[in-house]
Amino acid sequence: MGTTDKYYIERCLDGQPDDFRYLIRRYQAVLLAHLAGKLGNRDRAEEAAQETLVRAYFGLGKLKKPDSFFSWLLGIANRVAKEQQRQEQRRRQQENIRSFSKEIPTPELSQDYGLEKAIGELPDSHRKVILLRYYGGYSCSQVAEQLDKPLGTVTKTLSRAYAALRKSLQQKSDRNCEVQK
Amino acid sequence: MNCAECKEHLVAYVEGLLTESQEQAIASHLKECPVCQDELAEVTRLHNRLVANGKVLAESKLEDKVLNRIFREQSLKLRKVSKLNEQLQLWRKIMKSRITKVAAAAVIVIAVVLSLTFLEKSVAPAYALEQTIQANHTVRYLHMRDFKADKDEPKEFWIEFYEDGQVKNVRMHMPEWDAPEDGAKVIVWKENKAQVWLKKKNILATIKDKSVAAHMLKFIEELDPRLAVEHLHEREEQGKVKLEIEEPSDKAEPIVVTATYLPESSTPNRRFVLFVDQATKLVIAMETYQLKDGEYEYVGIMEYYDYNQPIEEKMFTLEQVPDDAMRIDQVTREVGLARGNLSDEEIAVEVIRQFLEALIARDYAKASKLYQGIPVEFLQKQLGKKKFVRIVSIGKPTPSDRNNSLRVPCKYEIEVDGVKSVVQSYPYVRPVFGQPDRWTIDGGI
Predict the structure, then answer these.
(1) Of B300, B135, B128, which is closest to residue B226 (Cα–Cα)?
(2) Is the pLDDT of residue B133 over 80?
(3) Which of B15, B22, B45, B50 to mutate to probe the A interface, most A CBs <10 Å?
(4) What's the pLDDT band for B406 if we cut at 50, 70, 90?
(5) What whole-number distance in Å separates Cα of residue B17 and Cα of residue A140?
(6) What is the mean pLDDT of residues B376-389?
(7) Are B74 and B68 in contact (CB under 8 A)?
(8) Hey, of A50, A142, A151, A168, which one would you mutate to test binding to chain B, going by the most B CBs within 10 A of its CB?
(9) CB-CB contact of B195 with B325 (8 Å)
(10) Residues A35 and A77: beta-carbon distance below 8 Å
(11) Confidence check: pLDDT of B86 > 70
């Protein structure tokens, strides 16, 4: 895994903010995947990911366990996503009132929105494994290390996450088919 | 192996997490079982989809955007707490880092983005530079620190203004890096008279001179936030400076004014970022940037504190100078030699001739007068052991860069402990500060 999150966090706290870039590199895809599923739009996911990282940077001093940076980051992302959703709702309400239009044009979806949405719907523990493995560039044993769990558990969780994802994706494509019919 | 067992292990199989024997067992079951083959295809498809999506997202360019925002917000946050020294030190450390190079270039872009974001909430910026100019009219006292990017110790200034905004009193702490040959010094400027205390050399010099005064006032003008802002305002009206004003809706955060000198100005490539307190409209800090290789590079920051906090009178004196400091007073004492009808070269030679003659006659009072008025006791202590015998020669003076002085080559014979020798030296001679018709030795004897 190379340099630990903790090392970079300490560097940042010591007035070397440049090193935050390594944490951004490490977790940007994770955040984007996590947020795209929740927000349904790549642009908004990007905005939320930026906000999350900025908040994380300024909150580094409050992070008690630097080893759990990842979980902490997801927590911030969840709060940011909620705030954005609320804002978006308000905006839509206002727009609806202004234009009397019922339909808001669907925002442009990201490349594999279906997959991201399905990931967003996974239980927390499953999602973490998927995010780290495929978006964080971790191997399974590194995921195990990061989450402080035996490799066997991670493998099982991954297996279950696959099942859940397949089910969710299957339902979605069924629904789409029905709509098309 | 049955189908249930196989399905359970397919993800691990695709991920390559199984032992060799497990893998072989799965492989041989797959050969026999088309249902599990389909299942494997499904799992592989999802795996590939995850990997592909992960790659796409990893290519996002969040890095610079996030770092720029961090820089920007850090700057604003730290302005608010600019009095906490620890925070400031951290800030300066940050300002030295690479992040500032990227960020400074992107400041404008972000300012625009921010103003778009806030467009819904806020009206057009209400702030204008005139307000800061106006606010500064009431400033009588000011304390500031001038930090340079590559130096830890700042220059520090205290200024008292007259009611009309003219400079009354000044105290400056100049660190050694500003003039290594002088070492660290304290300068006090009061009633048109400058006192300089060179700490390392332990010299206290009192100088009264129009050229020093003019130099001093020009220097202070560059420090005065009122004049700096007026200057920017003027240049903007002439189309030589572009101003961008960012006014946060949070009243606790400072207004940020970015002033960029345009190519048509006489001093392009410069950029100032002013942080203005929303309540008082006074400048809290001013960052300086210089365009280099297409990027605005951070040069330094001037921080302004304690607006209108009266400064004690004793700050404008040099009470704390040690008693044993060498005191050179050119204000109350006449020093040097009147030039009369002599040319520059002639008077320079004459000063040296009279100085050496005074030493031969052991007339240290006269020698002191010709040597900037340095104390008689000091001269006696330094030169008393040497017996000046005679002047061998005084040559033709040559111009020098040091204080517009002339260098006068001279040879004289001295006797130390009964041993005679001829010494060659090249002393500097120049007009006395504040008394241009009188000439004095500037050193080099």
Answers:
(1) B135
(2) no
(3) B50
(4) very high
(5) 8
(6) 84
(7) no
(8) A50
(9) no
(10) yes
(11) no
Two structure tokens written together for B175: 């660190």
Q: Does residue A73 contact residue B94 with C-beta atoms inside 8 Å?
A: no
Sequence spans of domains, chain B: 3-58, 70-305, 333-443
pLDDT digits (tens, 9 = 90+) for A129-170: 998 899 888 889 888 988 888 999 999 999 999 999 999 888
CATH topology of domain B70-305: outer membrane lipoprotein receptor (LolB), chain A (2.50.20)
Burial class (CB in 10 A: 0-12, 13-18, 19+), B193: middle
pLDDT at residue number B211: 62
Asked whether the beta carbons of B188 and B171 are under 8 A apart, the reply is yes
Average pLDDT over residues B56-72: 79
CB contact under 8 A, B12 and A158: yes
Q: What is the CATH number of domain B333-443?
A: 3.10.450.50
Q: Which residues contact B71 (CB under 8 A, 6 or more apart)?
A: A17, B94, B99, B100, B102, B103
Spatial separation of the C-alpha atoms in residues B269 and B292, rounded to whole Å: 8
Cα atoms found within 13 Å of the Cα of residue A155, Cβ hemisphere only: 15
B355 has a pLDDT exceeding 60: yes
What single string gives the DSSP state of each residue in B66-133?
A: HHHHHHHHHHHHHHHTTT-HHHHHHHHHHHTSTHHHHHHHHHHHHHHHHHHHTTTT--S----HHHHH
* Under 8 Å between Cβ of B12 and B40: no
- Residue carrying structure tokens 């009243």: B251
Q: What is the CA radius of gyration of chain A?
A: 18
Instruction: With beta carbons less than 8 A apart as the criterion, state whether B207 and B194 touch.
Output: yes
d(CA A69, CA A4): 10
Q: Which two tokens stand for residue B42?
A: 């499904």
Which ipTM was obtained for this model? Answer: 0.78
The pLDDT tens digits of the residues spanning B16-45 come to 888 899 889 999 999 989 999 999 999 999
Decide: A76 and A55 in contact? Cβ < 8 Å. Answer: yes
* Contact yes or no for A28 and B58 at CB 8 A: yes
- Model confidence pLDDT, tens digit, residues B155-174: 898 888 887 777 888 898 98
Query: Containing domain of residue A106, as a range?
Result: 5-180
pLDDT at B76: 62
Instruction: Give how many domains chain A has, as a whole number.
Output: 1
A77: domain CATH number is 1.10.1740.10
- Cβ atoms of A70 and A34 within 8 Å: the answer is no
Q: Closest CB to B53: pick one of A20, A50, A115.
A: A115
Characterize A107-138 residue by residue with b for buried, 16 or more Cβ atoms within 10 angstroms of its Cβ, and e for exposed.
eeebebbbbbbbbbebeeebbbbbbbbbbbbb
Q: Which of B42, B71, B77 sits opposite A166 (nearest CB)?
A: B42
- According to the model, what pLDDT value does residue B89 have? 52
Mean per-residue pLDDT over chain A, rounded: 82
Q: Do A162 and B43 count as a contact with CB atoms less than 8 A apart? A: yes
Radius of gyration in angstroms for the set of CA atoms belonging to chain B, rounded to a whole number: 36
**In 3D, which of B437, B427, B432, B433 has the Cα closest to residue B352?**
B427
Residue A177's pLDDT is 61
Q: Name the phi and psi angles at B60, rounded to 5.
A: -60, 155
Could you give the dihedral angle defined by the CA atoms of residues B209, B213, B214 and B218, in that order, rounded to the nearest 10 degrees? 160
